[in-house]
Amino acid sequence: MANSGSRIDVAHGASPPTSHVAAWQQGRARQHQQQQQHQQNQHQQQSEIKKLPLVDESGRLNIELHGYPKLNVYFVDLFHTLVNMPLKRFSVVLVAAYAALFVAFAIPFLAFARVDGLDCLPGVKRLDHAVWFTVQSSMSIGFGGDLTPHPDCFVVNSLVAVLSVVTLGFAYALLGVFYVKFSRPTRRAGTIKFSQYMVMYEEFGQLRLAFRVADFRKHQIISAHVRMLAALNNNILAHEDESVFKFSQLPVAGGSQIYLGLPCTVTHAITHGSPLYGLSHSVTRGKQGDAR
User: Fold this and answer.
1) pLDDT tens across 117-161, in order?
2) Could you tell me how many helices (H) and strands (E) the chain has, helices first?
3) Could you say which of 3.10.180.10, 2.60.40.1400, 3.40.50.300, 3.90.1150.10 is the CATH number of the domain covering 191-291?
4) Under CATH, what is the fold of the domain 85-184?
5) Euclidean distance between CA atoms 46 and 176, whole angstroms
6) Percent of all residues in the chain with a pLDDT value above 90, rounded to a whole number
């Protein structure tokens, strides 16, 4: 007779209890629901990303490029890279470039300070002395005291001549960058404000798109023109995770020869010849397109 406190084991290959099967099925169902919820969240995030306008309110493009060497693109056109660089970053690059120039020429000046027992640079005994000599030579400050190079030292005087030419090249290049950087009308464009929202209304039985533009400065722009460009996402050619945009210029009324002293209303009539004619409400609201 078996003891009442003995343990009863399930034989190998026997079916588990019904409660265990139900718990396992519920766990699988919850895991499947979580996966579906995660996929829906990802799809919603991708949809929200597609809703971003091509150009934001500050005029910057909401576009990210992938699959190309970014450094090569910026270094190939170094001039425009410096022109479009933010002022703080440009200041850091400017200081770093001149510091590298001074140190690069200070090393050979220190190496040739004494040649064959001749003191070519009597005052240069350490690297910092050579750096200060390079600064005085490149900026045409003038030599004084022991920092005057000996006229019989051909290498040192040749380095001074090369340093002068390189410094002039630096100065002329930076002069062009400064002129283009500070003469661009970027800051001036910041005083011209557009409507935050574009409206659609019906006038005389015809739908119209409209927005307002105004200049907040007293010095007005002469002969200003406004153009409207529509970027529509072609869902037929594009896959689910792609965007193939078609750009069309929209004819506008009130956009030519406007006077920005007062707020001006620019409108586009959605007629049969308009690229927006026949589009759904979701497209015209910007979910699959953009107008700038």
Assistant:
1) 788 888 888 999 999 999 988 887 777 677 788 888 899 999 999
2) 8, 11
3) 2.60.40.1400
4) Helix Hairpins (1.10.287)
5) 43
6) 13
